[in-house]
Every structure is written in structure tokens, then in C-alpha cells.
Amino acid sequence: SAVISQKPSRDICQRGTSLTIQCQVDSQVTMMFWYRQQPGQSLTLIATANQGSEATYESGFVIDKFPISRPNLTFSTLTVSNMSPEDSSIYLCSVGTSGSRYNEQFFGPGTRLTVL
Amino acid sequence: SQQGEEDPQALSIQEGENATMNCSYKTSINNLQWYRQNSGRGLVHLILIRSNEREKHSGRLRVTLDTSKKSSSLLITASRAADTASYFCATAPSTSGTYKYIFGTGTRLKVLA
Asked: Which of A5, A39, A49, B89 could form a disulfide with B23 if both were Cys (CB 3.0 to 4.6 A apart)?
């Protein structure tokens, strides 16, 4: 499985500011995804990060609020823009490994965001 | 809405006992995965079962899949305090293409020493 790291691991931010979260993988991967996990809840897919093109967003998530970049096959960023306390969540990136036949998905350690 | 519903929402057992968690889903799937999450941290991939498989084992874990009932179960045998975590099932609906997983509501397992 791929080794996935995220930066920062946690942050406390003020309302109205933006935070960019980085996801780095130790090998080239086909698919990268961003999820949100609100307190005490399950995971919700925000978007699929596409290499070299615009991300594909799920219903309820928009590019202006969650701009995503994926400049290559090992790196992606998610920005949480104009934050409000409702954005307080754990944000996780995940990858689908290119060598997998069965589409296993592996997760990074997450970024715990608190918005005051 | 979420694809998977897990049952029970919370489970508390004594060390050494077995823990069984169930996951039900709504649409046909390509495969189903189980994950463990400790204290709101990242998810650890436990096991993947394909839609044409009925049972898989990995160490103390046993996963079953019944596609006719659209349900799966995760059995942890001889539980340990270190198994205390939240467990999630994630399904890849067959209509959504590969890799796109939808997560269940999760079961919070507490193993008492």
C-alpha cells in the first residue's frame, strides 16, 4: 500500500481565513480523493482530484469553497476557503493505488481543522 | 444520503470476546471495504471483499458479504483493548465507476480490559 502524509496534522483558524492542506504520496497513484469527516460523523467525499485538470466535485461541494490542485501523480492540495465554524472537521485525502486490481483505497492520517 | 448503515452504532465488550458489526447498503456494488479509525485519526484499511466473494479472512478478522441481502458483517475474534476504535464499511456502487466509495455510519467499538 502507498504511504500517505498530510500537512498540517491540525490547525486552529479564524473565521474568514483560508487553509491549504497538502497530501503527499510516496508513489504514483491513479486516483486521489478528498473527504470530510465532521465531528462524530462518517466520511463524505468532497471531490476527486484529477491530475492536470479540474477536480470533480460531489453534490454540495463547490470549487470556490474547496479549490483543489493536483499538479502531478503524487501530490494534491485542498484549500478550505473563507472558513466558518461549520467547516471544523477532519479532512482526509485518500488514494487508489495504480497497482491494485481491486480498487483498494488508502487514507492519509487526516488534518484536524478547528475554526473559531 | 449515505449508502451504508451500520449496526450497532456502539458496542462494548470484554477483552477476549468476539465483536460482530453489520453493514447494510442500498445499491448493487463492485466491492466493499472495512476500515478502522482510532480516536478521529486516519483510516486504516482492514479488508476488501469483492462482490463475487462471500467470505474473507485476515488474521482475527472475518468478513462476510451477502449481496442478495445487501449486507456485510465484520467479525473480530478474541478482541483486545487495542481493537477499541470506530469501524466503517465503504461500498463502491457499481453505477459509480471504480474507486468511488461511500461510507457507512460506523460502529464505535469499546473493548474493556
From this structure: B89
